[in-house]
Amino acid sequence: MKKRVIVISLGGSLIVPKGVDYKFLHKFKKAISKHYGKYKFVIVCGGGSTARKIMTGLKKQGKSEKEQANAGIRATRMNAKLMMQFFGKEASSKIPKNMKEIKADLKKNKVVFCGALKYAKNETSDGTAAKLANYLKTDFINITNIRGLYDKNPKTHKNVKFIPYITWEKFEKMALKLKYKLGQHFILDQNTSTIIRKYKIRTYVIGKNIANLNKILKGKKFIGTTIEN
After folding, report:
1. Would you say 66 and 51 are in contact if contact means Cβ atoms under 8 Å apart?
2. CA distances (Å), 151 to each of 64, 124, 148, 159, 187, in order?
3. Is 163:153 a contact under the CB 8 Å cutoff?
4. Which of the listed residues 5, 39, 67, 209 has the most CB atoms within 10 Å of its CB?
C-alpha cells in the first residue's frame, strides 16, 4: 500500500519557546512514529522567538525587510536541523533546499524536515508548508501555540469566540484584514490563506496538545480548526 504524505507546519515557538522543549518534542516524535505504517511526513519548522529576536536586532541596525526575512529563514533551518537530529535515523540526513529534493527524500525516509525553502515577500514558513501541500497534493496541518482560530486575538482580548470550522474564502478575508508584519503571530500568514484557498488545500490548525494530531491522523474528532470548502 502506498503511504500517504502529510505536510505539517511546526511552530518554532513550540520547538524552542525559551529553551528547547524536550518534553513536547518527545511527545511529538512519539505521535509521528505511531503513524509510519500509513503516512510519510514533511515537517516544515518555523523560526519562533529565535527568528523574531534576530530580525528585531537587524531592524534596529536598519537592515531591509528582505535581509531580516532571510535571517529568519536561517533560523527556521536551524530548528529543522535540531528536529532532524532529534528524530535520528527516522529522518532524512540533510536539510533539503527545494521541493524536488523533498520529494526525492520522501522515497527513502519516513519523515523529512525543512525550514522555509526560499525568500518570498510577506510570507512565513507556513507559506512553504502550504506550497508543499499543493505540490505533494495532500492536506496541511498547522501546529501552533494556540488551539485554533478565534474571531479575535485571544492573547489580547477577553471575549473571544472559538471557530472550529471556516471556509477557505472566509478565512482568507479574515487574514487579509490584517496588515502583514515580519514575525507576526496570526495562525497563518496572508499569502498562505490565499494559497490554501486557491488550491483548495484542506487545512487543520491545532495547538500543542499532541492528542489532537493523533486524532486528525486517525480521522477522529479533534479540538482545533478545519479550513476547507
Report:
1. no
2. 32, 21, 10, 9, 12
3. no
4. 5
From first CA to last CA, the distance across the chain in angstroms is 29
DSSP 3-state of 169: helix
Query: Within 13 A of 167's CA, how many CA atoms are on the CB side?
Result: 4
CATH C-level class of 4-228 = alpha beta
Q: What is the b/e burial string over 121-152, where b = at least 16 CB atoms within 10 angstroms of the residue's CB?
A: eebbbbbbbbbbbbebebbbbbbbebbbbbee
* Residue owning grid cell 486524532: 215
CA atoms of 35 and 98, how far apart (whole Å): 25
Q: Say how far apart CA 83 and CA 25 lie, in whole Å.
A: 8
Please say whether the beta carbons of 200 and 133 come within 8 A: no
89 DSSP 8-state letter: G
Phi/psi for 191 (5° steps) reads -60, -40
User: Rounded to two decimals, what is the model's pTM?
Assistant: 0.94
Task: Name the residue with cell 519523515.
Answer: 111
Q: What confidence score (pLDDT) does residue 227 get?
A: 98
What is the spatial distance between Cα 12 and Cα 115, in angstroms, rounded to a whole number? 10
Q: Which helix (H) or strand (E) holds 69?
A: helix 65-87
Q: What angle (nearest 5°) sits at the alpha carbon of residue 138, between those of residues 77 and 223?
A: 85
pLDDT tens digits, one per residue of 130-182: 999 999 999 999 999 999 999 988 888 889 999 999 999 999 999 998 877 66
